[in-house]
Specification:
Blueprint: H1 2-7, E1 11-16, H2 18-35, H3 39-43, H4 46-49, H5 58-61, E2 62-63, E3 69-74, E4 83-93, E5 97-103, H6 106-109, E6 137-143, H7 149-160, E7 165-170, E8 173-177, E9 183-200
Antiparallel strand pairs: 1-3, 1-9, 2-6, 4-5, 4-9, 5-6, 7-8, 8-9
This protein binds 2',3'- cyclic AMP.
Length: 202
Amino acid sequence: SLLEETSFPLYFGWFLLSSVQVKVGCTAMDFLKTLDTLEAFKKHIADFTGQAEKEVDLEEYFETKETLHCTTKFCNYGKADGAKDLSLTALFVTPRTVGARVSLTEEQLQLWPADTEKESEVGMPGSASLPVGSRAHITLGCAAGVEPVQTGLDLLQILSLPEGEAVEEMELGSLRYYGEGRWMLSLREPICAAACFSSFYG
Ligand code: ACK
């Protein structure tokens, strides 16, 4: 009903403050710019292009669809307080999405619904056994035709795989390859992103 639609937000989440949006966006873009020049990446280029030898510009491959945020509860159309810093501990890229992994504190986990990882169990066996909060992420971009919900699923998929092969030491940390176009850069220094716990009505 209309009443329900206006009294329940589309989703709750932490929204990055605007200055931090730019900072996190630039860090991700720099990462993408470097990633697609690496020989190790070019070796697996077909994961992204479907064709060996074909080039890809990862900066253009992904588009940012929404204000940068970390969804806690998707309501599909209830308020908490407090500004909290989010700790971004990794950047990941797949042929579908680019995102940042968020590592929640014990306190932040109180705001995280217990069933978020289980919801994904249907399409992804194994993901329900991951620790609560594993799905916490910020969608930084989606490939054409891909919806943002995919980013958290891509993260869960990477986390449920055996640790990928270490491919390269980059300035920001170590880059691992997980097969099928899945890459994760574990940040040496987590990015501390000021954020506000809020709801979004769309
Ligand atoms: O990038 P995200 O985490 O993935 O943030 C957006 C936000 O809600 C608004 O589109 C997320 N989202 C969309 N559908 C779902 C769903 N079924 N379960 C969990 N999160 C969802 C999307």
